[in-house]
Amino acid sequence: MNNQKTHAVTLIPGDGIGPEVTGAVIRILEATGLKFAWERYAAGAEAFEKFKTYIPNDLYESVERTRVALKGPVTTPVGGGFASINVTLRKKFDLYANFRPIKNLPGIKTNYPGVDLIIIRENTEGLYVGLEQEIVPGVATALKVVTEKGSTRIARFAFDYARKHGRKKIHCIHKANIMKLTDGLILRCTRKIAEEYPEVAYGEHIVDNTCMQLVTNPYQYDMLLLENLYGDIVSDLCSAFVGGLGLVPGANLGEHAAIFEAVHGSAPDIAGKDIANPTALLQSAILMLRHLDEDQAADRVHAALEKVYTEQKTLTRDVGGNASTNAFADAVIAALEIAG
Ligand code: NAD
């Protein structure tokens, strides 16, 4: 393993539990024997304190260079303050596809065993374009922006993924009964792309009905394709099928860069206590390894993670154990060494 490539990766540890979960994940990744050159940057309130900017220019330059980042959660003020770091990064690097696989881990008891869902969320358009204004005091508006280009490329991404990975069915989730022009455009673009992939079944469901259908019977779905806001909400709902936000991974993918991050937030209620679960970020890091063409290492880490969950001896509190973040990481590393 001595002559192997060093992967340059931009690292944004984030705040709250971010530094704890990223620290654990880095230890596990380095235990695979792969070489990484981590380019570490602060973002959000921490960056502002030091550099008077929420996203330092050096961070942007690093992502432009490495084209891949691993990111912990960053606290975003509610109802004021600075714009979400995530939304800003997604816009800046045009990371138009948010990819969230939802699959059970062994040993985690949920009401929904055997779930295997892929959620593809459009990441750059819709109500998240950030065009809000207060027209007069007491009246505020937000602009929902949908483009043919944006709707077509995310549909293409979803169907290409289905073709490449042998997935059977895609449902486009919408509210075109009410949002006739915006969601109507999404449906028209998606139907056009669907015609080019006859081997992938295509369906359409209205988003409110979808929430009810998901909770009743998630197994009827294989892949969900959603615009930005519906995707944000529905993907968190789906994380509950497999044990919640502490477990599921996420990736933000574009043509020129990719940012891998956990779906959960900075969890200020448990920050600094060494009890956060690093599984979500670790699963995101496994996606990152695959993106870096390190499938063998990804398989090894995944097998080690599954072993620790199967044994149930060293799990964090959110999943019914009493191990610390670091003890959990040690257990995954030990399982990795045995597996490797
Ligand atoms: P949260 O995900 O931080 O916490 C929700 C609940 O889940 C809390 O009880 C928390 O303790 C628990 N939890 C979350 N992650 C966990 C983990 N890894 N291990 C164990 N328990 C975990 O959601 P929130 O409280 O709504 O948000 C807190 C802050 O995070 C807000 O400022 C929000 O804007 C920000 N946020 C950031 C991101 C991101 O950077 N990707 C995503 C979502 C929220």
UniProtKB/TrEMBL annotation:
Residues 8-332 form the Isopropylmalate dehydrogenase-like domain. The lineage of its organism: Bacteria, Pseudomonadati, Acidobacteriota, Terriglobia, Terriglobales. Keywords: Oxidoreductase. It comes from Acidobacterium capsulatum (strain ATCC 51196 / DSM 11244 / BCRC 80197 / JCM 7670 / NBRC 15755 / NCIMB 13165 / 161). Belongs to the isocitrate and isopropylmalate dehydrogenases family. InterPro entries: IsoCit/isopropylmalate_DH_CS, IsoPropMal-DH-like_dom. It comes from the Bacteria. SMART domains: Iso_dh (SM01329). GO terms for biological process: isocitrate metabolic process; tricarboxylic acid cycle. One of its GO terms (molecular function) is magnesium ion binding. This is Putative isocitrate dehydrogenase, NAD-dependent.
